[in-house]
Every structure is written in structure tokens, then in C-alpha cells.
Amino acid sequence: MGILYNLSIRNKLIGITLFVTILALGIGFTLVIFSNITTFKDEMKNNTIVTAQVIGEYCVSPLIFDDDAGAEEILSKLADVPAITKARVYDADEGLFASFSTSEEPVAQSPIVRERSSEFADHYLHVYQPIVYQDEYLGTIYLQASTKFLDIKIRDYLRYMILLMAGLTLIAVFLAIRLQRIISRPILDLARVAQQIAEDKDYSIRVQKQGNDETGLLYDGFNNMLDQVQYRETERDKAYDALRESEEKFRTLTANIPGAVYRCANDPDWTMYFISDVIEEISDTFQKITQAIKYAPFPVVAAPFSMCLGGGFEMIAPCRRVVALAELYCGSVELGVVSSGDRHLDVRGLRGEDESFFLEQARLADRSQFLLEVVFHSAIHMPCSSCCLN
Question: In the 3-class helix/strand/coil scheme, how is 253-280 assigned residue by residue?
Fold first, then answer.
């Protein structure tokens, strides 16, 4: 059955139609052939029995008058019947009274059967017919008929029936191939349209309904599905175009703003959702400046004072030397702020090891040296500036 499932619907229809047709023809022809062969045998049997009855009636007189020559002459008339090969007449005492044979073989004594009987045996039909006159049993006539002509007739009949069945099978094949299109063509057209839609992504294609049968219902369902898919695709395209237009307007707006625009999540990683294109120009310029400071052919010394926060802190980080003034607020948003005056030292926004480090450094006598250590320690913890200090 697996092979049948893998066949195309066209071949399935043809195969099933031919199988049913040949099976029905085979069963019908078999029954007809057996019936006709039986009829042929019955006809031969009846004809031979009628011949035996006629010959028996003609032999009544020879049997009554004991005229065996007359009986021989009557039996000789059977030469005109090609199927009769042997004939014998037995008297009332079961003695051989007269005989006829188409061959020169000696006539053998056959068992006498007083009752009418007939049977086919050894390619011959054997018929026994009692000869009775006025209710008096006079003897028995025996006829042996060859089934040669019957066999020829049956063989010709079988040949004819086989040719007829072959012809009908060819007609069935032709009709099956032609008529299967009524069922297979709509389904194949539907499969072809589905393949075309899958390749071209064109959901505007529709299949033309050809009838109101189950295939027509299948066409209606397929077209309704395409309507829904096309509607959803159209709405999706509209939403995409609107989103693209809105994004284009937003980009145009942010491009005209004198500065960088970004949008990020309020989480520990500051996950970015949007950054304007100008940020690349700003960051690239700033990176070039810090790279130029770090790799300048001459030493660059920074002298920060007052507030040096954020970008200012990142500007002094790549310098070769930092000379800090007595009053300085230095640091970054990520690390915290360190401030130092003539009489106090304050650590804000720092915890753990950073705070311990600064408190330890506070014991240094040289406050400028302390601020230098603060700057370098903070720079080491800055991801964007660490490359300038390595």
C-alpha cells in the first residue's frame, strides 16, 4: 500500500479504475466461460443421445428378425457423423450383435449398461441407450464420440473471450485515462496554484471554481484562506510602511538636533534602544583627541582645578602627568567623586575597596601626590579610558 500512497492522484485514479474493471470483467468472463463450456458439453451429450435413440429405433427390426447384416448397414450410416468413432449393438442376451468403427482396431467388448447413461472419459463421450420395442427390452446401443471437435470449439471460444476481454480492457484504459481528468485536473490545478503562490509570494492569485461538488467546496475554502492571508499581508505592509515613515521622521528630527540623542533602559547595564547617528561622530572625535594626547611626541601635562568631572576626567586620564591644585573635584558618574581642599578630604559615591583605597591614600603627606593617585586609580576603573592608560 505504501507504493500506492506515493503515486500521483492521476495514476491512483487510473489504477483503481482499471483494477475494479479488470476484476469485474475477470469474474464475469470466468462465469460466462464455465457456463458456456458446460452448455457445449450438454449440447454434444444431447446430440449423441438423440443419435443413439434414432439408430436404436432403426435397429429394432434387425434385432427382431436377427438380421445382423442389416444392423451393420444401419451403423455404417454413422460414418457421416464425424464425432462418432465407435458404435455397437448388443442383443437381449448382452451379446455383440453389430459394430462400427472408424479405425481398423479390433472392437473390444465393453461392459453392458442396460440403463441410459452418458459420461465423458479419456477424451471421449460414452453413451448407452437401451433399445425397447413395445415395452420389451431388445438390446442396447453404445456410441463413442470423440471430444476432439468439442475441444477445438472450446479452445476457439476461449481465444475469442480472451481477445474480447483484452479489447474491453483497452477500452477501459482509454476511458479511465480520459475520464480521470474530471477528478484529477481540478486537484492538480489547485496544487499548481498553491506551488505558484509559494514561489512568487503572490496572494492575489485565485483558483477558478468549476463545479459545486466536493472539489468546488475545496476551491471555496482555498480562496477564502487566500483572502485572509492577503488581508493580513496588506495590513502588515501598511503597518510596516507607517513604522518606516515614523522612523524616518524620527531620524530626520534627531539628525537636526544639535547633539546626541539616545534612549536606554533603566537597568544596571543601561541597555540601549536607540542612539542617533551623530554619536559616532562625537565619540570618534573624542577618541581621536584622547589618542592624540596619549601618543603625542611630547609629554602632555594636565593641571585640573575646581571641578573635573565626566568628560573632563576622561580628558586628563591619558595625560603623561597630572598636577592637581589644592581645591579639586575629580571623578566620573560611574565611579564617584573625590574632592580635596586645604583642610578636608571627601569621598562621595564610593564603596568597598575604592573607599578604602582613598582613605589609605589620605594619609599621604603630599596632597598633590594623593590626587594624582586618585586620578590614575579612577582611570584604571574607567572602561572607556583604560585603553589610553595601558
Answer: HHHCCCCCCEEECCCCCCCEEEECCHHH
Kindly state the cell numbers that stand for 383. 572602561
| Average confidence (pLDDT) over 9-15 | 84
> How far is 130 from 121, CA to CA, in rounded Å?
20
Looking at the structure of the chain, the number of domains it has is 3
Is a pLDDT exceeding 60 seen at residue 268? yes
| Claim to verify: residue 162 and residue 14 sit in the same structural domain | yes
Q: Is residue 248 part of a domain?
A: no
Q: Please identify which residue in the block is written with the cell numbers 547633539.
A: 259
Domain end point (choices 174, 203, 227): 174
Angle at 117 between CA 112 and CA 121, to 5 degrees: 90
- Alpha carbons 348 and 364: distance in angstroms, whole number: 19
> Average pLDDT in the 264-287 region?
80
Same domain, 73 and 169: yes
pLDDT above 70 coverage of the chain, percent: 81
| Domain around 218 | 182-237
Q: What is the pTM of this model?
A: 0.54
86 and 153 share one domain: yes
